[in-house]
Amino acid sequence: MPLDTSTYSLARLRLDGRRAHELRRLSAQLHTQAAADGSAYFEQGNTKVICTVAGPSESKRRGGANSSEQNQDATVEVEVNFAGFSGTDRRKRARGDKRTAELAHTISSAFTSTLLLHLYPHSTITLTLHILSQSGSLLATCLNASTLALIDAGIPMLAPLAAVTVATTAAYADNEEEADVLLDVNEQEEVELPFLTIAGTGEGEGVRVLVLESRVQMGRLEGMIAVGLEGVRRVRGVLDGIVREHGERVLEGKVG
Amino acid sequence: MAADTSTAPASLAFPRATFAKLTPGPFLHAHLKQSPPIRPSGRTLIECREPQITTGSLTHSHGSAVVRLGDTTVVCSAQGEILNASDTPSPPDADDGDLLETLGLLVPNVELSTGCSPAHLPGNPPSTLAQSLSWKVRTLLYGSDLVNPKDLQITFTAPKIDEEDDASVPEVKAYWTLYLDIMFISLDGNPFDAAWLAVMAALRTTRLPKASWDADTEAVVCSPALEDYSRLTLQATPVTATFAVFSTANPLKQRSEAESWVLADPDTSEEDVCREAVTVVLDGSNRVLGVEKAGGRAVGKESVRECVELTFGRWKDVNAMLP
């Protein structure tokens, strides 16, 4: 139990030395691949993801007579590849793996509602995510990396999407006072504690993505979402800083 | 630098980038015709890109390396997994020279379909280039006797029970299998050199835990203590160098009129217009591990000798750079 050590209640320190509301080290690089339309490498602690964007490009699907009736907007296709060395065991995932498909679908629907897809009718935007190292908060890292790659590709969006995970320490009912909400869980905490992934734009109280797959007390949920939105704001600030720094470097390169 | 307009005849004025896109062959030829010959990237004919090697970036692998060769970036991870001797069909002798190859204890895999270049889009099965790179790396790994089989054997010596018993011979109970996953993040020419450099750097910094056979549970147990991790003893330092040959030979012209230039460490724009390539693999200052030449007829005995000489120089530089 990562928190059931005697030191947590005394010092309130998690296994990796963080306090309850501290984020892990976030760092990123934009435009890592010159061949792709947009690319980004994002690290959240030890979780490392590379995202490449190709598009908008011509859609392979050819609408028949019904195309004018159906949705003409662009589609977002997401593909997730796990490198063999990403987890503790070297395991090659099958292509039709359900977990991977679910992850891809979540990311795809998140961006379908965020990107201005009506500007690119009948085209496809393809996001490819390569997971180099898994250490917790996988969906959140993928969403953050995808946001940066889409910004690098120059695809317009309503607002950048920032994501973070939150967990709650007390798993049983009669420990209300001790229940702490932890921000940005790593893999050991993910295994033991109920956690959720939340994504938003960082402005206001809107929630764009919320994924909760473990059981949690009803009363805790609101607290978790509140801390999650605060975390989303902070991650959005970090992403903004990264994009601005990259922009300055690009301008210096062009203008000199 | 672009060709001087003072020496070239007055013609349509193209910006440099357009010239490169429209006619890459004549673009390269215009650079090589200069005296001294120069390449579009500004390098001389024999100048290789300086590699940047970073090791130990992957947390879950026993060894890892990231190599940047110009715009080519490749990640290699070395991960050890246990193979029980009881799972092998017929355990070979411990002194068998081909032990590694018989059991397949070194497994390289090159992943190119990562979107590293427009020619390698993700989602496709491994292309011919990826498969042949995996094969070349595998051949070089086994052929160079790089890894000492003793490093990969997990032995068990049964304790003496009676006084009269002879000391028992250590028995091999399991093996370490090293999975080398090579993943290209971006590709700008010369994938083999970059991949091999990453493999060498990863193997040099691989630390395997101390594994022992537990007679009670009949399984291999590894010590979690960091002090017990040990490095591999590599028995060779193979270094590869690839050269591309640009030739103006044309079936419509006289063969004697053709000119050719040998370019060391080609990038993608040069590889696309060259039909010939030479790869030289050396180990140390006097062992040639392989010479491979594919396509074309511009390179003869003298040129191959020059390539080997250049690779000796490269061996010294790379050997100093490896961790």
UniProtKB/TrEMBL annotation, chain A:
Residues 22-156, 165-230 form the Exoribonuclease phosphorolytic domain. Keywords: Cytoplasm, Exosome. Pfam families: RNase_PH (PF01138), RNase_PH_C (PF03725). The keyword Lipid metabolism does not apply. Its main location: cytoplasm. Belongs to the RNase PH family. It comes from the Eukaryota. GO terms for molecular function: RNA binding. One of its GO terms (biological process) is nuclear mRNA surveillance. This is Ribosomal RNA-processing protein 41. InterPro entries: ExoRNase_PH_dom1, ExoRNase_PH_dom2, ExoRNase_PH_dom2_sf, PNPase/RNase_PH_dom_sf, Ribosomal_Su5_D2-typ_SF, RNase_PH. Component of the RNA exosome complex. Specifically part of the catalytically inactive RNA exosome core complex (Exo-9) which may associate with the catalytic subunits RRP6 and DIS3 in cytoplasmic- and nuclear-specific RNA exosome complex forms. Exo-9 is formed by a hexameric base ring of RNase PH domain-containing subunits and a cap ring consisting of CSL4, RRP4 and RRP40. One of its GO terms (cellular component) is nucleolus. It is found in: Cytoplasm; Nucleus, Nucleolus.
TrEMBL record, chain B:
Transmembrane segments: none annotated. Keywords: Cytoplasm, Exosome, Nucleus, RNA-binding, rRNA processing. This is Ribosomal RNA-processing protein 43. The keyword Cytoplasm applies. SUPFAM superfamilies: Ribonuclease PH domain 2-like, Ribosomal protein S5 domain 2-like. It comes from Cryoendolithus antarcticus. Its main location: cytoplasm. Residues 47-209, 262-311 form the Exoribonuclease phosphorolytic domain. It is found in: Cytoplasm; Nucleus, Nucleolus. GO terms for biological process: exonucleolytic trimming to generate mature 3'-end of 5.8S rRNA from tricistronic rRNA transcript (SSU-rRNA, 5.8S rRNA, LSU-rRNA); nuclear mRNA surveillance; nuclear polyadenylation-dependent rRNA catabolic process; rRNA catabolic process; TRAMP-dependent tRNA surveillance pathway; U1 snRNA 3'-end processing; U4 snRNA 3'-end processing; U5 snRNA 3'-end processing. One of its GO terms (molecular function) is mRNA 3'-UTR AU-rich region binding. Signal peptide: none annotated. GO terms for cellular component: cytoplasmic exosome (RNase complex); nuclear exosome (RNase complex); nucleolus. It comes from the Eukaryota. Belongs to the RNase PH family.
